[in-house]
Amino acid sequence: MNRAMERDRRPTPLARRAAWLKLRAGRVRDLMLSGRARSELWTRWRHGAAVHQDVSLSFPDRYAALFRLTQRLLAGRSAPRILSYGCAAGEEVVSLRGYFPEAVLVGAEINPVLLRACRRLPADPQRHFVKSTPERIAAHGPYDAIFAMAVFTRRPHEVEARGMHNIAAHYPFAHFAAGIRLLAEQLAPGGLLIVEHALYRVEDAIADLPLEPVMIAGNARAKHARFDRDGNRIEPNPQISRIFRRR
Predict the structure, then answer these.
(1) pLDDT recorded at residue 135
(2) Would you kindly state where each structural domain of the chain is located, as residue ranges?
(3) Domain 3-246 - what CATH class?
(4) Rounded to whole angstroms, what are the CA distances from 165 to 97, 161, 225, 226?
(5) Reported confidence tier of residue 9, pLDDT bands at 50, 70, 90
């Protein structure tokens, strides 16, 4: 598909406005009916710009293909230590146990309501849930794998509904890059960082980090929009890597 055809398929300003209003109406409904939605609003208010993603959508086995791929890549490591960064109500951590039965699993979450939900899950002596701070994450590391599957993507539905072509004010690249650096520092040598959804490319944040893409089947076109270091939308959606190894 050429660029002219890509432009023709973009929603019109009126369509974007309608989508934005629908999104806002749905959010108001959620706040009225859902304690989880209210906890997301509180987290946004309490932590402000320090939060990457304040919407906690998750469900069991959401990233089965990447879980299986990581399972193969870690096959030589006994009892790997694995971090689920931004673990929501624990859905991902519970799913990972099925792929890594001997692993030490750590879920890190900043939303206190969701963290309490994690801690109410059936007991697992090889599983820990912690408040998402650098100190508490580091206390359980270093990690053989870190999953940050949908953390580095601040309210992507809002980005699309509002037709944003520059997100520098909405979600600065420097904040994204600092998050990637934090996780890279928590990896053991040869450890893996796995990222699916992000508004920026991980490749643009690792020039001075000991991370390199793992050139395997996880490499494909981004499912959603990506933006460059200056916050400008990349069109069409670029090819990206999803798994990175610490050298």
Answers:
(1) 97
(2) 3-246
(3) alpha beta
(4) 39, 11, 10, 10
(5) low
